From TrEMBL:
It comes from the Bacteria. This is Gamma carbonic anhydrase family protein. PANTHER family: DYNACTIN SUBUNIT P25 (PTHR13061), PROTEIN YRDA (PTHR13061:SF56). It comes from Photobacterium sanguinicancri. The lineage of its organism: Bacteria, Pseudomonadati, Pseudomonadota, Gammaproteobacteria, Vibrionales.
Length: 181
């Protein structure tokens, strides 16, 4: 197991097929990473007191922090971090114990807190704050701190959600090719 992947209490990260983890990223504990997904420089992901699940073809960009909340008397399941397929998480985002659907773009520096649910086909603007327990409906651009629904996504923006994931799959493949030389 690479130094950037660490076991905690007997649980180690599990990687899907054809994934890329930058050497400077740290992934600890119960984390699963889907096929064709990528973790970029200086990402910190701690699945120590709950689990993190990242879907297929998703990318977590530079400096992002992924974490979870432990089970408590008031919340027996705690808050795992669930990230769907074809998700792009921008640089320096912080995702904490939330659920993110498929084809979502999380803008740079956005913060999404415990219990928030981000449905499919959403763009979250850079620097936005999603408060605990907030639910975001599919098909919209959300911006602000705290976040507010700004408008419906255009057809071009909806298409871009998959294009962004495709771009990072190709970039990941380029990095993997460099490593194998």
């Amino acid at each position: 197991m690479p130094d950037s992947m660490r076991t905690f209490k007997g649980k180690a990260p599990k990687l899907g097929l054809n994934t890329y983890i930058d050497a400077s990223a740290v992934m600890t504990g119960e984390i699963s990473l889907g096929d064709e997904s990528s973790i970029w420089p200086l990402v910190a992901a701690r699945g120590d007191v709950n689990h993190i699940s990242i879907g297929h073809r998703s990318n977590i960009q530079d400096g992002s922090v992924l974490h979870v909340s432990r089970a408590t008397h008031d919340n027996p399941s705690g808050h795992p971090l669930i990230i769907g397929d074809d998700v792009t998480v921008g640089h320096k985002a912080m995702l904490h114990g939330c659920h993110i659907g498929d084809r979502v773009l999380v803008g740079m520096g956005a913060i999404i807190l415990d219990g928030a649910v981000i449905h499919n086909d959403i763009i979250i603007g850079a620097g936005s704050l999603v408060p605990p327990g907030k639910i975001l409906e599919s098909g919209f651009l959300y911006i602000g701190s705290p976040i507010k629904q700004a408008r419906s996504l255009t057809d071009k923006e909806r298409a871009f959600l998959s294009i962004s994931a495709d771009n990072y799959v190709r970039l990941k493949d380029d990095y993997l090719a460099e490593i194998s030389q």
